Amino acid sequence: MSASIPTNDHVLIQAARLGRRFGATWAVRDVSFTLARGDILGFLGPNGAGKSTTMQMLTGNLAPSEGGVKIAGIDLRENPKAAKAHVGYLPEIPPLYRDAVVDEYLRFCAGLHGVPGRRINDAVGLAKRRCGLEDVGRRLIGNLSKGFQQRVGIAQAIVHEPAVIILDEPTVGLDPIQIIEIRELIAELGRDHGVIVSTHILPEVQALCNRVQIIRRGELVFSARMDELERGSHARLTVRFASPADAGELAALAGVASVDGDGTDWLLSVNGDADSLAGEVAELAAERGWGLRELRPERASLEQLFVDLIVNEVARP
Asked: Which residue in 94, 98, 131, 206 is deepest, having the highest Cβ count within 10 Å?
């Protein structure tokens, strides 16, 4: 029987210290987060960072080497069938039968997901309406455009009305118009479900998501709500002194997340109130006689955060 969407706002996914090892190599390690109904979580990272491995563990397609997952309160390891009934999954390569017609394929998927026979036609009809597939139900999947094939892939993921929808690189290979259409569809789904979108495309997260997580080398290195970024909760201070400053004293200031620089030029990453920290930096400079020449707060954009966490990290020796 298909799973109904939980009617309250309790946590739909609890991932606790997830890790996956292939031989001696950890592809994912110590990944923990939650997902609630109404969330669209952008899971962001470069290719090879561990996004798809994490998605496969969340859906039960890959057993974790450590840690665990609960879906709608159900332990995925202890009761996999019940937990998976609450999940809809679109892998990076959609599991489509190109020689099947759309209606036939979606009815087959509904049966696999446990939708009762008497409800299959209604479930397929609803999934088609939500995904804009009413006019292609009798067409061969292989004859559809890439964008419509992606819609069919999403329809198979939601045909059983799951609480959680996990989409791995949902717009890869689409043209600009198709990308806009798929993003609109995902935004619509986010109103009634908890959605995870795994991607390496920054505009994808900015256009769709209310939360963002960044994974690097298999480990989560950033997690925040998008409105926190917009309010400037994760800002930076560009600071220039007349005399060399001490990195340890700057790093010890409350609200400093990280310090980068040397001598007189510094970049301070802020985890809190940037204006308050700016005042503390000015006071410290006066006390130490460093001579403050420039103090410029900057709001951190998602692109800037990604560059700081991924690109600059990769460039370091």
From this structure: 131
Kindly provide the residue ranges of all beta strands, DSSP E only, lying in the chain, ordered along the sequence. 11-22, 25-36, 40-44, 66-71, 74-75, 87-90, 164-168, 194-199, 211-216, 219-225, 235-241, 256-262, 265-270, 292-299
Burial status of residue 157 (CB atoms within 10 A of its CB: 0-12, 13-18, 19 or more):
buried
pLDDT band at 314 (very low <50, low <70, confident <90, very high): very low
Spatial CB neighbours of 154, under 8 Å, sequence gap ≥ 6:
90, 131, 165, 167, 170, 182, 185, 186, 189
> Of the ranges 2-16, 276-290, 296-310, which one carries the lowest mean pLDDT score?
2-16
77 residue type, one letter: R
Beta bridge partners of 236: 269, 298
Cα–Cα distances in angstroms (integers) from residue 244 to residues 71, 285, 288, in the given order? 53, 10, 10
Give the mean pLDDT of 69-77: 95
pTM value is 0.77
- Residue 52, both tokens: 């798809």
How many whole angstroms separate alpha carbon 89 and alpha carbon 54? 13
